[in-house]
Amino acid sequence: PESAPDAAEVEQKVAAALAGYEEMADWTSNDEPLVACGSPDEPIMAAELSPLPCITVVGEHLVALTPQLKRQKVDKEQVQWLPAVLDSMVEATMQKVVQIKKLSPSGV
Length: 108
Hints:
It contains four helices and no strands. The protein is mostly helical.
């Protein structure tokens, strides 16, 4: 059987996926407020935005854990490694987010 994922290894993968995240042009490329496709007076909803590809990669790392969770469901081993792995993913992501130096008024 496949071994439980290592939190440090997962954190490294997430950090690699987010390399340069804090300096992406997306954060300052639009100083105008975003509007929905209709009226300029109607602000865009967060649900209408698409995630950056690097964030999608982080989500794919989470989805990749699913088979291991299914295999270990019977003996509840995931309780031992899952919190550490999730904490590592969040930590790696937040380290990049807090390094964003400039953010446009619209946040994108």
